[in-house]
Design goal:
The protein is built from six helices and no strands. By secondary structure, it is an all-alpha fold. Helix 2 crosses helix 3, helix 3 packs across helix 4 and helix 3 runs parallel beside helix 5.
Length: 199
Amino acid sequence: MYRSIKNKTSLFSFLLSCAMLFALASCASVHSKVECSRTIAARGVKSAAELTAFFMSQNPAADKAKVQRLAKYYVQESNDEGINSDVAWVQMCHETGFLRFGGLVTEDMNNFCGLGAINTENRGESFATEQLGVRAHIQHLHAYGTTADKKLRNAVVDRRYQYVSPRGKAITVFELSGTWAANKEYGYLLDGLLSRLEN
């Protein structure tokens, strides 16, 4: 009888240990997914390395050194201006087709968000360097996502910044639909990319 009780106790301990390990593994998998905010004037949660890894998973043929540079610029410039680098990054991915371009804007323009791109006569703004192109993108998001009392830290390079009216008309990515882009589903496209970035 003693052996029977001992065996049952051992079996119970074993099952309890298994259950605890399963619970811990489940918690770890739940907490490994860090949610990105959809608010434009928020702090991004992904590092430059994580942004790069996401990008390369979507376009493995891209120039990784360039993607790494851009990721660092996006995090730096966004932090400077209080803009969500995760949102800005996925918007760049969407607007450039993960740096494949192919529309009105060409790679040499360093225009990562389609600024001023309307038609063949108005192909969009051009910037001398990648960093200035990123800065212009962040500044344009700043105009959309913040009110007039929020001033830029860096000198204005976005020539269209002053034309965003009213200021703060897009608090989240969803309000970019029909404002930043004519597409009514635009915000949901960005939201989908943010969901993929989270995983």
